[in-house]
């Protein structure tokens, strides 16, 4: 599978400058960072949450975990992880577990963790498990301009940059 059509349209519509980095197939964001030989702090991962009002996406470095209490406080909602079946339905043009961060293109409110916004450049899934999109911070923040920035992530123990 190549880049998700939704992501490709979004990149084109925003006039984004980026490059594609191919890497061996990986199952998790930490495996992806290792396989692509990139710092985990610069690899964005997308985590989807839901409640009775619908879905929201949280985008943060792969070396971080979501502090749910912070996200609840920020959103005023009691969110829980979205179910796998919902992910497959919502992101039809992506492989499971390879969600790009531009969830607004999929109709979802998106929150961007400030720790990722401070990186000099960012990598993220292209909608498959073998390609990453790489762009400098300015391009990434322009792409994510509809995302709300917040502090909701915390570095996982034992994670190095």
From TrEMBL:
InterPro entries the record matches: YbaK/aa-tRNA-synt-asso_dom_sf, YbaK/aa-tRNA-synth-assoc-dom
Domain YbaK/aminoacyl-tRNA synthetase-associated residue range list: 23-141
Protein name: Ala-tRNA(Pro) deacylase
Gene3D superfamilies membership: YbaK/aminoacyl-tRNA synthetase-associated domain
Source organism of the structure: Paraburkholderia diazotrophica
Pfam families: tRNA_edit
GO MF, one annotated term: aminoacyl-tRNA deacylase activity
